């Protein structure tokens, strides 16, 4: 009888897999949106973004702006970000530093990547506790980090195999990352600022450049995640992205495993595609998978103008991760290597610190879901006012450990797995931890992740009061935030 039941289960599972494999998606958003997002993405919670290309050579823009937009800032003599700008700052810097006759494309030869070691990068990403990475295979300047025929259709060589490094950077990093537990993803910009077809014949650009180039990238490297961008100047029907995504889900080599985001044409973001993407956000929550992306400083590409004070502290980055995950999202944290392929030491250290914290507390992050409420507030004003376009990571410090007068703080963040609740405290509690609105069962136990033994507690009305051990700095299981696991909790009614 047992063997018969087992056989039935196997047949049912095979049937489900066959149905999934035979599913054909039409080139319509109604059909595309029905495709489930592979579970690994929702469980991953932490990824690393990498902006790297010819813009990493000048690596310059005013603080509070994106240095990877160097070409556009320079040629348009405009600027946007945090601060008051005349607009020509990058243009004037370029003239002073490189001269009037030095054009952006000459940076391609200077982008050498001669110290790039893919295995070292991959090992760092794994040590950081990241579950996926997203490399900019091509940004808006059109330079591809892989050998590609369409990259040269502008009339000159513009890819990393024929210019600068003379190496297949996408291929090297994909090979290295695929040897680890980390999943490989690729960012791809649909448009290119100054491609002659983009400027003069957008239909030709889409048909003869974007679509074949995109398919070449997918079929050659088989990424598990594709991060589209640069889509906002055309409607999806003009980009033909519904057709492209239908091909991706029906025919490509990654059709059964690939994850995509939501940047596939004007009006698509936050409505269609795969998971939703926020950028320097703060309070978002959605009913489907989503991801917050931001740099360690303000720029995504390496910016020589940013110094230690511009980089988020380890504490801020860990609290950012916790805050995003408590709201059901993933954090995609960006690093910007330099033109030689070195990841700046301050970025390396931040990643290593996050990895050390996740080794102790990863149970409360990976594979978790939102709880009935995502946070426990103190008494005070919870309103948060955004005063800059790009919201710095210090906002989370103001909401937790360094509040302004009269403002409430987030005392605890909550995540969950099944009936187990994780309460993550930005401050180590002094003797007692008060958890509001939690209903323990007769089998509930409380533990501190990384610390041996159970913690005693009492139930008082709608509160749990937990006895917290007094620990010295050296005895603490981790730094920056501490996780209390409350097992077998009853859901609130």
UniProtKB/TrEMBL annotation:
Family, per entry: Belongs to the glycosyl hydrolase 29 family.
Sequence ranges assigned to domain Glycoside hydrolase family 29 N-terminal in this UniProt record: 17-363
InterPro entries documented for this protein: FUC_metazoa-typ, Fucosidase_C, GH, Glyco_hydro_29, Glyco_hydro_29_N, Glyco_hydro_b
Annotated PANTHER family: ALPHA-L-FUCOSIDASE (PTHR10030), ALPHA-L-FUCOSIDASE-RELATED (PTHR10030:SF37)
Swiss-Prot/TrEMBL keywords: Glycosidase, Hydrolase, Signal
Domain Alpha-L-fucosidase C-terminal: 410-486
Signal sequence segment: none
Domain of life of the native organism: Bacteria
Entry-linked Pfam families: Alpha_L_fucos, Fucosidase_C
EC number: 3.2.1.51
Entry function: Alpha-L-fucosidase is responsible for hydrolyzing the alpha-1,6-linked fucose joined to the reducing-end N-acetylglucosamine of the carbohydrate moieties of glycoproteins.
SUPFAM superfamilies: (Trans)glycosidases
Designated name of the protein: alpha-L-fucosidase
